[in-house]
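Risk mitigation, structural track. In case the binding assays with 2-acetamido-2-deoxy-beta-D-glucopyranose fail to produce interpretable data, a predicted complex structure has been prepared as a fallback.
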Amino acid sequence: MAIAISIHTPPLVLLLATLTLLLPTTFSASSNILLSGGFLTAGRSLQYNGYALAMQKDCNLVLYDAGYEVWSTGTAGMGKKCYLYMQGDGNLVIRNGTGPVWSTGTSIGVGQYALVLKPNRDVVILGGAVWAARTGLAVT
Ligand SMILES: *[C@@H]1O[C@H](CO)[C@@H](O)[C@H](O)[C@H]1NC(C)=O
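Fallback model:
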């Protein structure tokens, strides 16, 4: 995409043009799904409409609805560089760099899992195949 910008273009117009180019990238990065093997670092969140599941810099994992807190892991203050990790064994864990500070305790076996912030505001871990052709390649 080529944009012709004259040298007489006011700085504000240049700024708005730059933001317009950046915004779609920023917004498409937000998702309501965290697949197994995926991280949510401090400051990042899953999003669905007005809902947000935020891994905060204070180490608390908080579910917001239109800015109001509706649920949290109660782990504020347990580390400065905490991250949420959807493990490949089905367990969802908050780690603080030293070790785990919270988990769902759902290690049920190696597989493909997904933490999903659903349209009804529920937060669930989905996974496990109902049926498989058993042609899948081994994952290390
Ligand atoms: C991580 O959490 C553990 C348990 O609460 C705590 O002992 C440890 O100091 C924390 N580590 C950091 C880097 O905050």
